[in-house]
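Appendix B, example 12.
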Amino acid sequence: MDKENVGQEERGLIKEKTLGQAKSIFEEQRDEISGGLSSIAQVLQHSSHQLQQQDQRLVARCLDRIAEKIEQSSNYLSEKEMNQLVYDIKSFARRRPWLFLGSAFALGYFSIRFLKSSRF
């Protein structure tokens, strides 16, 4: 083997290792976010049941729908692999670029607000 082939092999091994680490980190974060979303859905469902007992059925139904959508999002996220999720995000961004950019901006804005509030 010459030096060029050895260098390519080493780069390939480094690339595999890096992708493996990235996938592992992604899966940990995905599971944590999915679990958090599921917890939020459960809290909303519990609140909905309390509101139904207080004869606030309209608000309770709205909370049920929101909880259902959040639970669906949690399930969707937990079932997807990194490559599938990236593909879905790219597809969505191509189909609806303004909605994607607006969502990304809102997510960033609220993330920053959350991080600022949790530091103090």
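The chain has a mean pLDDT of 88. The helical segments are 3-53, 57-79, 82-95, 97-119.
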